[in-house]
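Handoff note, outgoing to incoming analyst
You'll be picking up this chain. Sequence as last confirmed:
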Amino acid sequence: MQKFTHLTAVAAPMQASNIDTDQIIPKQFLLAVDRKGFGKHLFHGWRYLDAAETLPNPDFVLNKPCYRDAKFIVARDNFGNGSSREHAPWALLDYGIRAIIASSFADIFANNALGNGLLLVKLTEAQVEEIHQALAEHPGMEITVDLEQNRVTVGEKQYSFTLDPFRRECILNGLDTIALTLAHEAEIKAYEATIPNWRKIVR
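Most recent structure output, in case you need it:
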């Protein structure tokens, strides 16, 4: 997965709480198991005025010109609740979102997101409100998310956050579960060499 160390980019404010995974990527698009191609359907029900996705909703935040290149979303509480679909972080990442800032995240979504390299920054409700106010005063402003320093910088203000050390190291180094396994490739091959031929599966 793609590494995340630090990034300065536009942050898009989403005022709703309890944004669920069916809003992030509706069920009718869960037809593929490849991680690519879901970004065009992200927030389908909010981004488009028609089912064919030919009429963008001008009132939706990601369709506004100043937020079209946003790499961060600043949400509210309980982001990612609902069904456990891993397609939700796939869609966010495929669209180009690298981090979500919120006061809380649904547990299963958080596990899926961090496992795919989507950084989740948990701040207090008061801190999230301050960031929303800053974004409202300066639409399209850039903020900096620094995982190396565990810090978010918004204008003159800085906010510290914490992340599980294992997850942090994985995201900093771009290590998903496959990469973590392959880090032990030599040991795996050494073990396989000790297996008698009669026990090996013939393909």
